Amino acid sequence: MHLPHEKAPVVFRRIAKAIKRNPGHIFLSLKKGTGSFVDARKRTFYLWDEALLRETLEDGSTRILDCRVNRSAFNPEDRWISMIIKRNGLYERKSIGE
Fold first, then answer.
1. C-alpha distances in Å from residue 85, one per residue of 19, 21, 39, 95
2. Fewer CB within 10 A of the terminal residue: the chain, N end or C end?
3. Paired residues of 11 in beta bridges
4. What is the DSSP letter of 97?
């Protein structure tokens, strides 16, 4: 949630590629909303809406299996988008030394 939206596609692809199982799964949970904000501790938070998250993730390397919006356990006003994502078998794993 501290990753700028414009950097997310590359980072998500790298995460999918790094998974050892082929295909593998990712659990992702990000704060729901739009835009970004800086908190009192000077941390920048980037908020996501479901459409932007789906557009960012569904690039052919992954497929969303489940998506839910949940209330935060710490702040009932906050919502989190939680997804289970399957990495498609597009990446070949190479042995060390290849």
1. 12, 13, 29, 25
2. C
3. none
4. T
Confidence of residue 35 (pLDDT cuts 50, 70, 90): very high
Q: How many CB atoms lie within 10 A of CB 81?
A: 21
pLDDT digits (tens, 9 = 90+) for 55-90: 888 777 788 899 999 998 888 888 999 999 888 765
Check: CB of residue 80 under 8 Å from CB of residue 72. Answer: yes
Q: Rounded to whole angstroms, how far apart are CA atoms 81 and 54? A: 11
32-50 b/e (C-beta count within 10 Å ≥ 16 → b): beeeeeeeeeeeeebbbee
Against a cut of 0.85, is the pTM above it? no
What DSSP character marks residue 24?
-
